[in-house]
Write a structure and sequence with these properties.
The protein is α+β, with helices and mostly antiparallel strands. It has helices at 39-49, 56-63, and strands at residues 7-12, 17-21, 30-37. 30% of the residues lie in helices and 30% in strands.
Length: 64
């Protein structure tokens, strides 16, 4: 990944996160979570908010 461009944090329906170049259109199946910044800033944000790596469908199946 390049460190000289801005990134945005994306999330999908399964609650999985991804870093995406801010100048690129958001791909189908993903939405911006509102965080934009440097690679390090966006990575730190993902580390803070994505505390359970299991997909949402698995978390739901395991809880009920």
């Amino acid at each position: 990944m390049r460190s000289d461009i801005a990134y945005q944090v994306l999330v999908n329906d399964e609650g999985q996160y991804s870093l995406w170049p801010a100048h690129q259109p958001v791909p189908a199946g993903w939405v911006a979570d509102g965080k934009t910044g440097t690679l390090d800033e966006c990575s730190a944000h993902v580390d803070e908010v994505w505390t359970d790596m299991r997909p949402k469908s698995l978390r739901d199946a395991m809880s009920g």
